[in-house]
Each structure stands twice: as structure tokens, then as C-alpha cells.
Design goal:
Layout lengths: L4 H4 L5 H14 L5 E3 L10 H12 L13 H15 L9 E4 L2 H12 L5 E6 L3 H9 L3 E6 L19 E7 L11 H14 L2 E5 L25 E6 L12 E5 L1 H14 L5 H12 L3 H23 L12 E5 L6 H12 L1 E5 L10 E5 L4 H15 L1
Parallel strand pairs: 1-10, 3-4, 3-5, 5-6, 6-7
Antiparallel strand pairs: 2-8, 7-8, 9-11, 10-11
The structure holds pyridoxal-5'-phosphate.
Pyridoxal-5'-phosphate (PLP) binds next to helix 5.
Length: 384
């Protein structure tokens, strides 16, 4: 039996085949160190786990959750936006709970992209932006994010057309670790307004920043709510990737459009998980300084080692990745394969993030310090 064309037309997910390669190496008995996935290695803060324990024991959480998220959760997100960004949100209409931000990032395409429509997606960028546009019957149009501009797309060169319905941006960026200042986001809002395009901003890494850099919210731009929807989650800032909780924030109209998709497809996130996320957002935030210090130390180790080996990388100001060009004459996959075959270190080949990711690899910093040190030592031996 044939599957739907939308499934056939999706490019094969590169990381699925890489997973097989990795599993095969491990089966051979190789002690592989994977710097491939971006999944925090540290545990969720204890007070969040505690809140979950209490919430699970409360029968009030055992029934279907509210579709849009509990008012307590939405109020906690709104209050956090107020404290963190000085942005005012109406928890009733301008905040929606997501089953992890990836869920909303995927589903929002069904709210804005019709068959034949176009979505501008950073290239290289998080693969879900393009995949969701394609699943909705649209086309993902490359928004080049090149090294000469610190991997921030040049919107004056964007291939915008009558059919462009959405534009994705995400800062700090995965995989390039690009960061934006408020001016960049102001330009994106102005561009989106001028072209009547919904601006979708992924703020998953807004708390993972270094060297004093503070990431802005797109909603800090005056009038941004009219055109922008922002996605966030506790995954990276509270080591909660497994819990599956996030949010979308923006105008009531945009939240309602996403809500029509979601209420027809899912029944919201477990109320106990929402309570845990409230504990994360409203509890002590001191773990954040520690988290940033750990990633910063690891970033310096990776960048330092690569620069000693002949690279000339600038330490990135956000995310938990180092994005690096491969040596002259190699491809992303060849270089990644070489590191895996020669020294058992797995890095993500950049071409998995878009055509313009070819020629790069991504090092994830979500690996315990001792393993990361060993990985960089091995890379040093392989390349020197
Ligand atoms: C990790 C990540 C997210 C967060 O996903 P969740 O579904 O909230 O866990 C969103 N966007 C990008 C680019 C990411 O790397």
C-alpha cells in the first residue's frame, strides 16, 4: 500500500541513518562519544521534580487537561514574559501550552500554510521548520544564513513572493549558534509586516547565552504581536527535554488559529507536567548561571581545541552548539564519517540542516565534561 505523497516527498531524515551508523559502531565494540544530539546531559532541577511528584499524586491532574493549558500555567508564562522581557501578555488569549515547542513548531504550519504556499526557513536551520511546511502541502524556501553575516539571514535578499505565508527565525540558533540583537528582530518584524507574512520566532535557547549577551524576545519589538508568534519551552533552560512542555505566545488571533489545529488533534499536556513547568518558571533561577557556566566552559574547550588545530572560530554567544566548517576538500558527511571511523567521535553533519549546511559540522555541548574532553583529545590526535 502506498503512503501519502507528503510522506514520500519528505527528504529522508538524515539523522535516522546516522543513528544506524552509530549503533553499528557501538555493536563493533567501539566506545563512541556522540556530540550529535542536543539533549542536555544534566538533570531537571530538584524542586521541579518535587513539584511533579506532588502534582502526580493529586487526582485533580488525572483528567483531560485544558486544551489551551491551565490558566495557572498560562499565567506563569505571561508573568515570566513580564519579568524577563518586559512584555505584557494576556494569559487568557495570548498564551497557549504546547506538548514541547516542537509540537507547536510543527503544527503552526497547518494554521498558516496552504498547499502551494511558501515558508521562508533559515538555511541551515532546525529541520522541523521546513518539514512542517512540506507536511502542510507548502514549499520551504531557503533563507540563506551565511558565515559572512554571522549566520543571521539577510532579509533584503529573501526570496519572498505572493505565496510566502510564514518566515521562521530562531535566535540563538540551532545549528549555527547565531544570535540576534533587538535591531535584527525589529527588521524582521518590519519585513513581515511589509510582506504580510507571519513571523515565527523560535526562542528555545533564549536563556542559554554567554559572555553577558542577553537574548531578546521578538515581542519586545513594538507592535510585534500583530505579526509575530514566539515559541518557547523549558526544555533547554531547565533540562526538561523529556517532559514535553512549551508555549506559543502572540496575538489572540494567532493563538486562536494554532488552537483550531491543536484542539482537533491533541488534548493538551498533562496538568501535572504543566505544574512542574510553573515550578520551573516561578522557582529559583540560580541553576541558570551554573548551566551557562558549564556550557560556556565546554564551548571554550571545543572552540579552543579546534582553533589550536587550525580553525579560526569565534566563541558563539548562545545555544549549546559549536558550528564549524570542515577542512578544505571534505564534505560534511565525509568529515563526520572520518571522525567516527578513526576516533569514535560522532558529530552532526551540517547538510542535515539544509543545503547551505554542507561544508559544516555541529558539535553539541550537551555531553559530560570528561567525555567532551576525551572527544576533543581524540579529535586532536586524529587531525594533528
Ligand atoms: C531543542 C529545540 C527546541 C525545543 O524543543 P522542545 O519540543 O521544546 O523540547 C526548539 N527549537 C529548536 C531549534 C531546538 O533545538
Amino acid at each position: 500500500m502506498r503512503v501519502a505523497k507528503r510522506i514520500e516527498s519528505l527528504p529522508p531524515y538524515l539523522f535516522a541513518s546516522l543513528d544506524r551508523k552509530l549503533a553499528a559502531k557501538r555493536a563493533e565494540g567501539v566506545d563512541v562519544i556522540s556530540l550529535g544530539v542536543g539533549d542536555p546531559d544534566m538533570p531537571t532541577p530538584e524542586h521541579v521534580v518535587e513539584a511533579m511528584r506532588d502534582a502526580v499524586a493529586d487526582p485533580a491532574t488525572h483528567r483531560y487537561p485544558s486544551y489551551y493549558g491551565s490558566i495557572e500555567f498560562r499565567s506563569a508564562v505571561a508573568a515570566w514574559y513580564g519579568r524577563r522581557f518586559g512584555v505584557e501578555l494576556d494569559p487568557e488569549t495570548e498564551v497557549m501550552a504546547l506538548i514541547g515547542s516542537k509540537e507547536g513548531i510543527g503544527h503552526v504550519a497547518f494554521a498558516y500554510v496552504d498547499p502551494g504556499d511558501e515558508a521562508l526557513v533559515p538555511d541551515p536551520g532546525y529541520p522541523v521548520y521546513a518539514a512542517s511546511a512540506r507536511l502542510a502541502g507548502g514549499t520551504a524556501v531557503s533563507l540563506p544564513a551565511t558565515a559572512d553575516r554571522g549566520f543571521v539571514p539577510d532579509l533584503s535578499q529573501a526570496a519572498v513572493s505572493e505565496r510566502t505565508k510564514t518566515m521562521w527565525l530562531g535566535f540563538p540558533a540551532n545549528p549555527t549558534a547565531a544570535v540576534a540583537d533587538l535591531t535584527t528582530l525589529e527588521e524582521a518584524v518590519a519585513f513581515s509586516r511589509a510582506h504580510d507574512v507571519r513571523l515565527l520566532h523560535d526562542a528555545a535557547y533564549c536563556e542559554i547565552t554567554f559572555d553577558g549577551y542577553v537574548a531578546p524576545s521578538v515581542l519586545q519589538v513594538p507592535g510585534a504581536k500583530d505579526v509575530a508568534l514566539e515559541f518557547g519551552s523549558t526544555s533547554k533552560s531547565y533540562n526538561m527535554t523529556g517532559w514535553r512542555i512549551g508555549w506559543a505566545v502572540g496575538s489572540a488571533e494567532a493563538i486562536e488559529a494554532l488552537g483550531v489545529v491543536k484542539t482537533n488533534l491533541d488534548s493538551g499536556q498533562f496538568t501535572a507536567v504543566q505544574r512542574a513547568a510553573i515550578a520551573a518558571l516561578e522557582g529559583p533561577q540560580d541553576h541558570l548561571d551554573e548551566l551557562r557556566a558549564i556550557y560556556q566552559r565546554r564551548r571554550d574547550l571545543v572552540v579552543g581545541t579546534l582553533n589550536e588545530l587550525g580553525w579560526s572560530l569565534k566563541p558563539p554567544l548562545g545555544s549549546c552548539y559549536v558550528w564549524a566548517p570542515v577542512p578544505e576538500g571534505e564534505t560534511s558527511v565525509r568529515f563526520a564519517d572520518r571522525l567516527l571511523d578513526d576516533v569514535g567521535v560522532f558529530v552532526a553533519p551540517g547538510n542535515g540542516y539544509g543545503d547551505l549546511g554542507e561544508g559544516y559540522v555541529r558539535f553539541s555541548l550537551t555531553v559530560p565534561d570528561d567525555r567532551l574532553s576525551e572527544a576533543m583529545e581524540r579529535i586532536g590526535k586524529a587531525l594533528s
